[in-house]
Amino acid sequence: MFMQKRIIYGIDIARGSPRARELPRYALAILRDGEISHFSMLRRQKIFNMIQRDRPEIIAVDNIFELAADRNELLSLMERLPDGVKLVQVTGGLHPEPLVRIARKHGISLDPENPNDEAEACARLADLGVGHEVSLFEDITKIKVSRARSLGRGGWSQNRYRRKVHGAVLQRSREIENILKDLSREKGIRFEAVNVKGFGGYVRSEFTVYAKRGEVPVHSMASNDAQVSVRSVERDKIRYVPLKPRSQKRKFTIVGLDPGTTVGIAILSLDGDLLYLKSFRGIAPDEVVKIIAEYGKPAVIASDVTPMPGSVEKIRRSFNAVPASPGIEVSAEEKIALGKTFGYSNDHERDALTAALLTYRSYKNIFTRIEKKAPENSDLELIKLHVIRGESIESAIEKVRAASQAREKPAGARAAPEKPEEKAVDESFQRMRETVQRQGEQIQNLQEYVEELKQAMAAKDRKISKLESRLKGFKKEAYSEIRKSKEVQIRDSTIESLKKELSNKNKTVKELRRRSNKLRKIQKMEIRGEGTPVKVIAAFTKESIAETKEKYGLKAGDVVFLEKPSGGGAATAQILVEARVRAVIIPEDISHAAEETFFKGDVPVLRDIQLERADDFAMAEPEALKAAIATWEKEAELKRHKAKEDKLESLFEEYRSERRRGLI
């Protein structure tokens, strides 16, 4: 029988960045059952085409944001991955380590300057079970069934058409509901349905399925009348789930359980990493035991309530694990705060996670002391297990050390039988002798180190004395120079600043003089009757109109000039109509809605009027202005007359239509 080879993709960025304009290039290493293949300078789209073809088990990177510029782009990329393909960050989760350091720990050598080496290291580390899977989606799938097209504005067959479309949505919804019911019976997957009824069927249906998208046998599709959309629910935060190490002994875990019709399961490592978090409706206890055993050996099984429920106690006894519970009632706010970092899908997962996290926190300080006290190369997990079961730290360390020595002793080297008393004395004496020898060596090393430190200190003292004397001489010589230089620098800076200020003021005075002359000229023209004043509004917006009104006033009979008439609509035009301005001058066309508002408000809109400008004021030639207003009023009168004729014609046509149909 043909066996599918295990395929792992290792990817490292070779040139550029997802945040740069130029598309980045990548190095790709493909690991097929130990055999590596390299590809250089590939674009991201090319790699995703290869992923669709090969469907690798894992895509391994040292930093997920080398593939995407931000979270939204990463979300889009992960939605395109085939079902079952994992994206893994081999350098860790929330607090990643350098790739070189992790590779060295696992005996993998690489050149940090070579993207091909880094891509291969990512693939091989993922193959060993190193890294964290990136989880951006909840174990929840949303299915939406809706109309595939609009129902339109109406017509003779509108109701029949609506019934047909809504019937298609109803039929598709029932097909999906039957599929989900079968899935629930076979695998215990829970779902909820919300249907919005319409004429002759459903307007839309929405299903919430508490399972991953790959576990739901429904796919997006569209027909003439109904369409189906299937999508995963995005998490609030990225979750990093540790991979299961390959070919290693099963580790000890802390398990939190929330019993009931729906069972919540949370599994932590003794380092506090979240290994598993999920809830199941109607799951049997032996299935719970299988899931827990798959992720390691439970050292502690915890519940978030006291006393521990009987169903949890039964599972605990099957593993001979230590029981744990908080001893006090934990509020919902505390549970939410505890689980916020990890994320959860429902209250059952939250309560299970709370039990596991509170238990880990109660042991965290003890675990830290164990890590500090334990000798190098000790089995820390086994020491922690003994301490969890009630041993002191010293006793647990000694027990693990003795067991390790017993395993290392040759099988054939058997000593003569000893009496229990003699054996105990000999073991005690041996331990004391080893302790004294170890302490003697440590004292000797410390004495040698102290001697070295004294010699280094004396040499440094001599060097410091020489440098201090030289420094004093430099200070005396440089102090006066520095002071003079600083004073000159301050003066130069002040002079430069004053020059800039004077230049700016001269420019301001010149500009004000120019404006004053222009305004004086306009005032003379107005007094002599040679011009009509016009107020300039910078833009056809509510803000610009309000600004002009606040600065210069806006009263009945004013003529205004819209410097930039585009952008304004009916509401903006209405402000000027309500101000009862005499006329509006524009340099270019305005929107139809605005012009219609001015027409209804009897405000002339004038084009091609020559103006004498001075900032926010202008002057128009009176006769030209009067003539333009008169022309506009004539055109407006014709337009009103035409509108009345059209209205009468419309009424007449309506009357004739009703006569023909016999309604009158």
UniProtKB/TrEMBL annotation:
Residues 436-522, 634-661 form a coiled coil. It holds the Pfam family DUF460. Residues 403-424 are annotated as: Disordered. Keywords: Coiled coil. The keyword Coiled coil applies. InterPro entries: DUF460. PANTHER family: DUF460 DOMAIN-CONTAINING PROTEIN (PTHR40707:SF1), POSSIBLE NUCLEASE OF RNASE H FOLD, RUVC/YQGF FAMILY (PTHR40707). This is DUF460 domain-containing protein. It comes from Methanosarcina mazei WWM610.
